[in-house]
Design brief:
heterodimer; A: alpha/beta; Rossmann fold; six-stranded mixed β-sheet; 18 helices; 25% strand; B: mainly alpha; two-stranded antiparallel sheet; 13 helices; binds adenosine-5'-triphosphate; binds magnesium ion
Amino acid sequence: MEPVLRLQDVSKAFPGVQALRGVQFDVRAGEVHALLGENGAGKSTLIKIVSGVYRPDSGSIVLDGQPVQLHSPHEAQRAGIATIYQELLLFPELTVAENIFMGHAPRRAWGGIDWRAAATGARQILASLDIHDLDVEAPVGALSVGNRQRVEIAKALSQKARILIMDEPTAALTQADVERLFAIVRRLRERGVGVVYISHRMAEVFALADRVTVLRDGAYVGTRDAAQTGEGELITMMVGRTIDQLFPKSDVPIGMPVLEVEDLSLAGVLDGVSLTVRAGEIVGLAGLVGSGRSELAQTIFGIAPATSGTIRVAGELVRIDSAATATRLGIAYVPEDRATQGLIRPMRIRENLSLAVLGELARRWFVDRAAEMRLAEDAIRRFSIRAPGPEQIVGKLSGGNQQKVVLGKWLATKPRVLIMDEPTRGIDVGAKAEIHRLMTELAGQGLAILMISSELPEVLGMSDRVLVMREGRLVAELPRADATQEAVASAMMRTAKAA
Amino acid sequence: MATADPRAAMPGRLHGLMLRHEMVLAAILVAALFVLSLQTDRFLTTDNLLNQGRLMAEIGLIALPMTYIIITAGIDLSVGSIMGLCAIMLGYGWKNLGLPLELSIALSLLIGTIAGAVNGWFITRVRVPPLIMTLATLALYRGLAEGISQARSVRGYPDWFFVLGQGELLGVPTQLWLLLVATVVAAVVLARTSFGRMLYAIGSNETAARFSGLPVDRCKIAIYALSGFTAGLAAWIFVSRVSTTRSDMGTGVELDVIAAVVLGGTSIFGGTGTILGTALGVVLVQLLKNGLALTGVKGDATIVVIGSVLILSILVSNWLRARRGVD
Ligand SMILES: Nc1ncnc2c1ncn2[C@@H]1O[C@H](COP(=O)(O)OP(=O)(O)OP(=O)(O)O)[C@@H](O)[C@H]1O
Ligand SMILES: [Mg+2]
């Protein structure tokens, strides 16, 4: 079958980086084609070429057998190529309907925008995706990440897309949301849409993809039929070696409580949460999106100070009224959303890495450039951040490498308590194992770690204890031995189903 | 070596661009000097230029904290009113309250600082947008000044008081020295200290700055307070220069200051800007005003020219930005 879209011999360089060299790739109607590769392998760059964001330095794009030039995202959209980028791009203040029809809203006779028609259209599109629980008048900013993503997909469909590109769509989703997303993708495939799917999660690739293409260091490695390959082969293609241990959890001595939270409440969000994390312990925090996990973390971290309840750090009663206070007390928080909370994207790697330790790094008031440089070079080495150097602008890094910068920034504070919110979001298999190894190592040095993750295998694999949250409350506490997939999942859902 | 990279001195993606923006400004400045000096031979004289330096000091000083504020994506419209209020307080404290003049000066500086801190407090704690807050205090502080002065002006200051506004040191106006020192300090603080780094961080992404444990609110209150203090300082210079105190002093100053800062390449959206750019902006605005006045252009037309130059410089730097494909 002739593919809808074919890329031939595409190359693209950025200053200091050859992001793609002579890559080929094609998409057929009615297939899901997965794109795999390590962080910085060039996946996002490839799809940005397809979606008209970047022009390739050389090579050609063939659409329906015709060579085309895509000069802008707008042109690509008109050609039927819709893209959901790694970092979601919706306008938070606008409603669901407004977002879906942003840029191509139905018009009235005199040229004004017909918002009523837009709302109706939005409802129809959502219904065609079997989505009936979204209020099209609600502002997008109020939605969960999973719902925001559904809005993105609806937006893509409103543009009558024949090719839908999804760059790590599940990185921020819980299991239930992932299932719903899969249902939508399968439905689109049946309709004959060609789907390009990027993910670092092997299980998803095998659940969804018909074919898989692997990139390494910007070069094309190969394409396989999903039915005729296995995880081992793909990982070897991606990293050029095999990865032996996925969750390198080792037993370390568990010490005194470092973080003790008692009866913590935040009006309307948290309801009497009590928990303890000891030195050397990794506590996993599971729950659905919206169950209050991130809110709990941000309350402990002082972003949204608690309305009642107490927090002790190393046995001492503390009052945390701002993130500055929390940081001073030795609490670090790797936030969920790196683009808005974790990083200052227009700034350099060096400047981002030193942000949380500016005070310590300063000599008198002056930033100690040399120390800052050393810090940055260390972090780049330790986390194998792929970048031309410490002076690179963070916004230009690949998604996974940005995540590593966030981790590096917080570990530079040498915290006593490390709260990680989706720490391996968007990180490739190799680097993920690396980060898990690092967590184990840090726990071994007496760090108390509270890890929020929507990836159940990660929670189960890394935690000494698993806490489950639901509707702002802690509803279950399971020691490692009892924390099975079923036990955790059922605690997460119980009333959600009953309701 | 990356450490030797001169560009490392400025944070952010735009700094290569900033240098270019400053180059554009410098080029415009030279061109303006050239053209104006051809129009009239009274323009390019040492006396005239030094005198322009004297006139420029108040705007120049206020433009420094204004650069900080705009870098954090804020704005301070109340500087002109704070200047008026401080000028009145200076005269009122001395003449009506019978304070020693020194104490009255200190009091007026303190009031300026408090007026600025009030802006900062409402902006950070009550989350009033800076534009709204300082628009409100623009009216409020001016009203206070008028209420206190009751339309009376204060004159008859002792001789030593005029040194700052009318005196000179080594042949250069006193206040120009002050401006020079303040500019250098402001530039170093912005480019080299952790405080400066914080300002850029706040302006580029306030949420992330907060999540990084930076004292965002304290930092903002500090710069608005600094802005108020500087407006007080400018009031002192102003009164000393014109020998009298009136409540309408500093009216419209905010426009000149913001124009100079934006002309200097500081983005109103926050995250970028340099003191060098601001300094060039201030000089350019002042020379244009003076040169046009000398060539017989009327006041209204001067404003038109300044507005046009402002738009032109923004167009040029936007064009540069687009060509570099930033974002
Ligand atoms: N605008 C840019 N300017 C400079 N370098 C860039 C830019 N965009 C991407 N790069 C570089 O190109 C390389 C490929 O990046 P890309 O985003 O395509 O990786 P990726 O495969 O999507 O990785 P990830 O899994 O982490 O998302 C990286 O080294 C990245 O730093
Ligand atoms: Mg990517």
